[in-house]
Amino acid sequence: MSSYNRMSETTETIFSKIIRREIPANIVYEDDLALAFTDVHPQAPVHILVIPKQPLAKLSDADSHDHALLGHLLLTAKRVAQKAGLENGYRVVINNGNDGGQTVYHLHLHILGGRLMAWPPG
Ligand code: DGP
């Protein structure tokens, strides 16, 4: 099943509204497949979310049809981090499902930077 078909199984989220420009966001990058915007509750001096335009609720819903899209999102994260000047490094996080701490069910990569990240994460 393609991610597009899975759309009907996912709930409309706030990120769909950001993609459609129905609510404002500080968009820092956009291409045909992905959108990046600053997180409304930043957990680091730089906190940017990279999302696919095509709705996919969570990483664990991805399948082999999503190979190219997932690769594109990672490369987009790299590009956005570079553009944000995070030459000292950064962290890329995907929260997946309830125990992963996911709150918005539209796949997103968090790019966190501008400070030293602790490990293990909370
Ligand atoms: P997660 O917990 O991994 O599902 O992260 C969801 C993130 O989305 C969280 O860090 C806050 C952010 N967020 C939620 N609503 C909005 C919004 O309306 N605008 C923006 N820019 N970010 C949002």
Fourth-tier CATH superfamily name = HIT-like
Strand order of the largest sheet: 1-2-3-5-4
Principal-axes shape call: globular
Number of strands: 5
Note the total helix count: 3
Pfam family, one: HIT
InterPro entries: Histidine_triad_CS, Histidine_triad_HIT, HIT-like, HIT-like_sf
Protein name: Histidine triad (HIT) protein
GO molecular function, one term: catalytic activity
Give the SSE layout.
Elements: H1 3-6, H2 14-19, E1 27-30, E2 34-38, E3 46-52, H3 67-83, E4 90-93, E5 109-113
Antiparallel strand pairs: 1-2, 2-3, 3-5, 4-5
Bound molecules: 2'-deoxyguanosine-5'-monophosphate.
Commentary on this structure:
- The active site is at 108 (tele-amp-histidine intermediate).
- Residues 14-122 form the HIT domain.
- InterPro entries: Histidine_triad_CS, Histidine_triad_HIT, HIT-like, HIT-like_sf.
- One of its GO terms (molecular function) is catalytic activity.
- Strands 1-2-3-5-4 form a five-stranded antiparallel sheet, with helices on one face.
- The protein is built from three helices and five strands; from the N terminus they run ααβββαββ.
- The protein has one domain: HIT family, subunit A (2-Layer Sandwich).
- With 122 residues, it is α+β, with helices and mostly antiparallel strands.
- Helix content is 22%, strand content 20%.
- Residues 14, 25, 37-41, 49, 95, 101-104 line the site of 2'-deoxyguanosine-5'-monophosphate (DGP).
- 2'-deoxyguanosine-5'-monophosphate binds at residues 14, 25, 37-41, 49, 95, 101-104.
